[in-house]
Specification:
six-stranded parallel β-sheet; 14 helices; single chain; Rossmann fold
Amino acid sequence: MLPPKIVVIGAGSAIFGLNTLAALMRSDRLRGSTLALVDRNAETLALVSRLAQRLNREWSAGMTITTHTHHNDALPEADFVVSSIEVPPREKLWRSDFEIPLKYGVRQPYAENGGPGGFAHAARNIGPVMEIIRTMEQVCPDAWFINFTNPMIRICDAIARYSNIRVVGLCHQIAMGYAMAGRVLAADLGFDVMDSFTSTHASPSFIPGARHMVAQALDRLDIKAAGINHFTWMLDLRDKQTGEDLYPLFAERWAAFDPTFEPLTRRVFEAFDLFPIPGDEHLCEYLPWLSDPVTKPWEKYDVSLYEWDLWDELRGQGHAD
């Protein structure tokens, strides 16, 4: 079997592009593949291309790397199409998705993937994604489309409903399950805890501590989870080294843990006796009662909005995805 052709659309994004390159080039199974990098920002694409060539040499990946500013030029004969695109400007539009419903009395807890904000977000992104899908139907109908674009469920559903292209949605949010499990079991497992890790909220002040914990937890823990994207439940938690079922110990430690740590997650865990792994900021989007304008539960559970201005600034500096 010939090595596959992999097309990466959105290759220039600060986090997605770099992480994807590293994952692909470290794979022994993908050595010798053709890697087509696509991004409409030619300057950023050139930078990513230089990095890809460097990684290709350093890791002896043996890949053939091409660059394209439009997906039409990259898709012919593709076997896999990995896509993370977003109609810009991301933060400004996201803020509008929150503020417009607010004018009409709907106060959303996050406004990215659920509620009217999630609908508007999907309406913007489905069109460009389906444009890629229509081209795939013509030039690589047997390829898999691997989607990273949010709202994940709505994007994948649109593709499944209106095309025969095979689609898989991928999201890293299970990492927050590892972060929370590791934090609560840190004393039992000997994990190092950074003082800054007091929340899974997507804020620069919390992210380093969460990543530090995820790295340790992934080496030691095995989580099996199921559900829809950003509304996923931990079915099983085990020690990778011994196979021991750690769910009972985790539940015991969680019950005695700091109640200000992910309070919404705590409430939902108590109600269903299954641990939700997305963290409060994504979990909240699929709980309609969080938008009650009378009781204002977002205050009780300290559900924070996305920091649009900060992330817009960081994106401009090349530090955001």
